[in-house]
Amino acid sequence: MLARLTAAEHYDIRIAYLLLLPSVLYLLAMSVYPMVFSLWLAFRNYLIYRPDLSSFAGLGMGVLRTLLVIPVLVSPVAMGLTFRYMYAPSYGLINYLLSLVGLPRLDWIVSTTWALPAVIAVDVWQWTPFVVLILLSGMQSVPVDVIEASELDGLSRWQHLWRIIMPMIRPVVLVVLLIRLIDSIRGFDLIYILTRGGPSTATYLLSIHSYVKGFTEGDMGSAAAIAWITVVLVNILAVLFLRLLARGKA
Asked: 74: Cβ–Cβ under 8 A, 6 or more apart, which residues?
């Protein structure tokens, strides 16, 4: 096509490129370069008054924490709908991945065997980052001199973890266990979207039973009674954990 152009047309194209060149250079200098440079800075320890001391720092902890906490921020309804499609027997992503490695397809949320593990897997995937961040904060609160003393005593990594770190963050561990236990007891939205409490009673919790009694059968008295039983059960567990926590501090 270009070979058929006349000399005048070639000249016009060159002029057009020359006229565009200042705009392209301005875009590169004022937009592309700062963006690339800021990305480079994000991975380095860089002091503007001592650029000669610049060093590679890797991925920033703030970025990692943000990425880890994303599943916690996802709506349980959106999570349930997403995994409901992923668990689909015929076109679901999980069964497709299983078939790629030669494993049989499973009826995840329609099987009495696999429905509960499937729901647990989704819940663990969503809330494990939350647990990890809390435990990480607890571990970072351990005094540095205690860590240095354990290193001087020649403790291995596992001994350091189980004999030093875990006893010191025991209150944090108990709080995390209490939060997750309460969430497991009162959980409703994720399970309702995924399985409706089925198949049969494989994922049938008190919260599902209360909903069925109240909004399916119209028995609001039984629904309220079940809800109050759940509240009492949660409070009993909370008191037990608080006593364990107070005993640990004592």
From this structure: 126
Instruction: Give Cβ neighbours of residue 45 (< 8 Å, ≥ 6 apart).
Output: 53, 54, 55, 56, 57
Distance between CA 151 and CA 144 in Å, rounded?
Answer: 11
Cβ atoms within 10 Å of 208's Cβ, excluding its own: 20
Sign of CA dihedral 233, 236, 240, 242: positive
Residue whose tokens read 């919260």: 207
> In this structure, what DSSP letter does residue 87 have?
T
Residue at token pair 């099987």: 111
pLDDT per residue as tens digits for the range 79-119: 888 999 999 988 889 999 999 998 899 989 988 999 999 99
Q: Which residues contact residue 153 at a Cβ distance below 8 angstroms, ignoring those fewer than 6 apart?
A: none
Question: Cα–Cα distance between 220 and 228 in angstroms, integer?
Answer: 12
* Burial label, 118 (beta-carbon count in 10 A; 0-12, 13-18, 19+): buried
Instruction: Give the number of other CB atoms < 10 A from CB of residue 102.
Output: 6
Express each pLDDT in 190-246 by its tens digit.
999 999 998 888 899 989 999 999 999 999 999 999 999 998 998 998 898 888 878
AA letter at 13: I
Dmax (CA) of the chain: 93
β-bridge partners, 45: 55
The pTM score is 0.69
